[in-house]
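Long-time lurker. I teach an intro course on protein structure, and each term I like to show students one example going from raw sequence to a predicted 3D structure in token notation. This year I'd like something fresh instead of my usual example. Would anyone be willing to generate the tokens for the chain below so I can use it in lecture? Attribution to the forum is fine with me.
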Amino acid sequence: MRSFRAFPALAAASVLLTALCAGQAPATVPQGRVDVDAATAERLDDAISAAMRKAGIPGVSVGLWFDGRGSYQRSFGVSDTTTKIPMKTDLFTRIGSVTKTFTVTGVLQLVDEGKLGLDDPVSRHLDGVPGGDRITIRQLADMRSGLFNYTEDKEWLAAFQAAPTRSWTPRELLKIAFRHSAEFPPGSRWEYSNTNTVLLGLLVEKLSGQSLSAYLREHVLDPAGLDDTAFPTGAGIRRPYAHGYTDFTPDGKVADASLWNPSWGWAAGAMTSTLDDLRTWVPVLTSGKLPDGERLLEAGTQADRMRALPTGHPGVGYGLGIANINGWVGHNGELPGYETIAARLAQHAAVLVVIVNSDIDKGTGSLSTLIGKTVTEIATPDHPWSLPAAAQPNATPDATPPAAGTRTPATSPQPSGP
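-- Reply from a regular --
Happy to contribute to a lecture. Here you go:
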């Protein structure tokens, strides 16, 4: 399963990272609040710092909350490699494929309103989808449609790399996907595809009569109290934000991708958020209930969402826009310059949020998976965050997890996290 890491080599305006290119993360004193026991906090501080040095990560923020048993909220390294401003826990960031959890929530709300059924054929609601009379809404949401993932199209990748600030429309993205044959018959297997979630975003717009951005603000973000989460309609991101660094550039040089246009990810990976907002969102996502106890989704619809089926990757299941990775339920996200994890582990009543401001793995694999595994091997050793490389998204234009070894923009869950 991939996170938003679908572009094999995304490019942007260049900002060389001296410390990163040297293979060492900038040294700063960890920032944040901790009220877990001192020994555990020290182990986490040391292990995260070591992982950052190993992978050359500029900045990381980690939030780990245990219901009634304390929390660990720390930031390490720098948010801007030029000014050396420290990474902080309150910075805005791009969340890639974690966006999918919001888009699919919108679809499920429409199911609750009786405007569509999960087993409706796509063709009943949207025209022009190849094989749409045989693909269901459910198969779009659980990544079993067989539709080609547009972020793996070589021509599109080259166009994105050449002009990362270009704006893309959903219809342009679908046109790219639909010029490819289906990968497999609908429902026959699982394969991460950002195309699925773009279609779901158009479905929300058609049936609600609102833009996807407006619908999510009114029906999901505001009810959940997510004031610092947004679906941008352009390339902007609220300040103060963490700068994101990538080498998905024509010449392979490191660039600052902070203001690259995320429209290519749209419903699959364009959203922004913060550590605290993601901490609030995860329990809502996994329970179907708002912070005040009111239901965001009907119980039966939430049960449908949470029913994770095998993906073919050990320890990784996928439901309706949500992943189960060794017991951690939520999603990961990757796109040029940024990687994210937002998940809950019911067995420990724990929520984990990881934010990384780079997608340059230097052979270590997904950076968010590296940090997630480092944290959970200490905090929840019986349930480490473990996303197989083949199931992880790649961090180039992706909005979900792409396949191992491919560097494309990601906007979906990958087997390292969704």
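Some talking points for your students: DSSP finds twelve helices and 16 strands in the chain. The CA atoms of residues 245 and 337 lie 4 Å apart.
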